[in-house]
Amino acid sequence: MRPISRRTALAVTAGAVAAPAVSTAPAVAADTTTATSERRQVTSGRNPVLRTDLVTRVTPRNNWLVTAVALQYSHRIDLRGGVIPPSAFQVKATVGGQTAARTVTRVYSSTIAEVDDRSRPGRPGDRLIIELDPNDSNARAAVTDPLPLDRAYSVRQLVDVHTPEGDPVLRAGPFASRNDDVITPVVDDFAAGSFTDSAGFELDFRLYQPEGFVRNPQTRTRYPLVVTLHGGGEVADNNMTQLTSNRIAVTFAKPERQRRDPAFVLSPQIPLPRPMDGPDGTDWTDAKVQAALIELIDTFVSEHSRNVDTARLYLVGLSSGGRGIYSLLAKRPDVFAAALPTAGWGDSATMDRITHIPIWADHSVDDPIVPYREGRFGKPGTWTLMNALETAGARVTRGEWANDLPKAQFEVRSRELLRQARATRSHVLFTSYPPGTTPVNPHLAWAQTYENDVVIDWLFAQSR
């Protein structure tokens, strides 16, 4: 993980089994001895595994999954156009004391330990990527806390692999290798830190820093700051599941988004024991938590005053994180440029304080956890809050469509809603999802929200 530069106010926390295999690449060596060794590898079919890594992925609906195993070999593997059948490898996972097979779906060589999503994946390299079925019952990388995955997976080659011409590429053998590490793209780019406020209350956080800032911390380029507020299920002491349980933070740090909108992404986590002060003093509205959150944001902005664009501070949150957004906006109405609250609830009486703030809210009509109209703990849900905003003077643009539409169709509907909002000069948008259209659980309305480029583009276009 990359280090964070700050003063003491922000305190940063931060075995190979020789499996039979071979590279069929032509020998390229600095001397005759090395070239001879390479030729022997080609003809003998022996090429030791140097390390084994699990490759995981944060998914929109199924959370954090182990999606591949990456084997690094001593020498380059060139299949010469050949294909490795999934049956060539056996992968087993030992999770929660239970050992069971994982389903191998594709195998290909690569230069990096990364899943290749192309229909014809792979290229000659010293890695072998063994993709696994994400629908396996033992695919999860976490429950409430991350699972102990070090050396939890074993990989064994069962049959020899040859080029189309019959040359040996990978030879089977009796030994299995176990994973040395766990790789999670994007998540691994977040530094881990903690912040202790002036009252002594501590919040853990993860921070993504834009590449331009990392390359040159002395730059005067100013970047937006996205603050993500997780849901109640991610209240924990692991400083991880606020990134991996949902794609809320990953959305803003993934390479394709950072190329379009480089930004700092700050993702705090509420600690255990769960703070509760009063009937609705839950999570982000708990007095201790909220005071620490406000101080964390203020301190971060102050410490990075040369590089944070204070006109572009954004709040993004789901479930109790959405509740936190409505509360925080009302208490700091002149700080944030825009917000994305999903499946949240709040105080109707405070909506008159935030009529000027651009908001794109969404909620499933049949949400059983945070009811669409009634909300929680006597505080109303999104539908009622949008009505209160209208009563207070904000123009709300509403749309309703299925939450299980394919991404392209979903974005077409979002784009049309945005056109309507612009035509009426409305800066508050509200998307509702009809009953039975939000997959897995009606409460999980956010699965499409953070995959929606129209919504994220809209967010980054907002400025105070």
Can you tell me about this structure?
The chain has 464 residues and is α/β, with parallel strands linked by helices. The chain has eleven helices and 21 strands. A ten-stranded mixed β-sheet has the order 1-13-14-16-15-17-18-19-21-20, with helices on both faces. Strands 6-7-3-2-12 form a five-stranded mixed β-sheet, with no helix packed on it. The protein starts with 9 loop residues before the first strand and ends with a helix.
Write the layout of secondary structure elements.
Blueprint: E1 10-12, H1 32-44, E2 49-59, E3 63-77, E4 89-95, E5 98-102, E6 104-110, E7 125-132, E8 153-157, E9 161-162, E10 168-170, E11 176-178, E12 181-183, E13 191-196, E14 202-208, H2 211-215, E15 223-229, H3 241-244, H4 248-253, H5 255-260, E16 264-269, H6 287-303, E17 308-318, H7 320-331, E18 338-342, E19 359-364, H8 382-391, E20 396-400, H9 407-423, E21 428-433, H10 446-449, H11 453-461
Parallel strand pairs: 2-12, 15-16, 15-17, 17-18, 18-19, 19-21, 20-21
Antiparallel strand pairs: 1-13, 2-3, 3-7, 4-5, 4-8, 6-7, 8-11, 9-10, 13-14, 14-16
